[in-house]
Specification:
Low-confidence stretches: none
Mean pLDDT: 95
Largest sheet: 10 strands, mixed
Order of helices and strands: HEHEEEHEEHEEEHEHEEEE
Oligomer: single chain
Radius of gyration: 19 Å
């Protein structure tokens, strides 16, 4: 019997990618070659005091911690390495970088991230290869990470779970927190080059981690309608929740004119797992376009 693979099922079903980037204003990347446990922070043999502090920070600061390693790196339990702290908020995008020799030093990094490390001008490409969390991430992620590493060896990292296993291979570009899903090795390098040029690929785009899901959905529909692909195009000016599942989002078009997009959230039930180890029946959220006015 052929094994079920959530990413294959989602691709065949045409699950929508847009507005699926999980929330994260800040990203802490910690070099840790492995092994990685299913729950990266608490089950990867980090020092308990550091693990507790990092887990608390992710909740208090709308942040995400990802363990990273170079593609093809031998798994070894090393207690030192490089860290990166990325701010993905619009208008504040930036990366700081440093090294640690004791994991408890990471507590100081998250306590005052503007004081530690040095600014880094290079973007970072993260590819989820977290096989302990979901098999699809390893099977689909590693070839993408290898392809990117050949072109951008100093910018590419494998990483732990970033959310949305069924969209593997998942690629995150920092500092903006741009999410791409269902990425193939052939596409990965082109996506990176577009990102360097300040542009987006609308077909693979899941959204931006520092924006609420209704804003991600509104930008998606505005871009589709206009063909605008710049990263900074259509910034959100205002968001109003007009009903329990409906939002009206005011965006600024590249020419300065306002665009109002109304989107409605709906639950879609499916008779299949959304992760390789998930329940047989599940549901996920989609955003429907209600209205778009220039």
């Amino acid at each position: 019997m052929r094994k079920f693979r959530c990413a294959t099922a989602a691709e065949l079903a045409g699950d929508p990618l847009e507005a699926t980037a999980p929330p994260a204003d800040l990203w802490l990347l910690v070099e840790h070659a492995g092994p990685w446990g299913r729950h990266a922070i608490t089950e990867s043999k980090l020092q308990p005091s550091a693990a507790i502090a990092l887990a608390a920070w992710t909740t208090a600061s709308r942040a995400r911690v990802a363990l990273i390693r170079r593609p093809g790196a031998a798994h070894r339990n090393r207690k030192s390495g490089r860290w990166y702290l990325a701010d993905a908020r619009p208008g504040r995008e930036g990366i700081r970088s440093g090294t640690y020799t004791d994991e408890n030093q990471l507590i100081d990094v998250i306590a005052d991230h503007g004081r530690h490390g040095e600014p880094s001008a290079e973007p970072i490409y993260l590819v989820c290869t977290h096989g302990r969390h979901d098999t699809c991430c390893a099977l689909r992620g590693r070839p993408v990470a290898n392809a990117l590493a050949r072109a951008f060896p100093h910018r590419t990292w494998e990483c732990t779970h970033v959310g949305g296993d069924r969209f593997a291979a998942n690629l995150v570009m920092l500092p903006h927190g741009i999410y791409y899903g269902q990425v193939t090795p052939r596409e990965a390098v082109d996506l990176a080059k577009q990102y360097q040029a300040g542009a987006l690929d609308l077909e693979r785009l899941r959204g931006r981690s520092s924006l609420p899901a209704p804003v991600q959905a509104a930008q998606h529909h505005a871009r589709l309608a206009s063909g605008e692909t710049s990263i900074d195009g259509y910034p959100a000016v205002r968001i109003d929740q007009t009903a329990p599942t409906e939002w009206r989002v005011l965006l600024a078009a590249p020419d300065g004119r306002p665009v109002t997009v109304t989107v409605r959230a709906a639950a879609r039930a499916v008779s299949r797992p959304l992760t390789c180890a998930g329940p047989a029946h599940d549901r996920f959220r989609i955003f429907e376009l209600v209205d778009l006015r220039r």
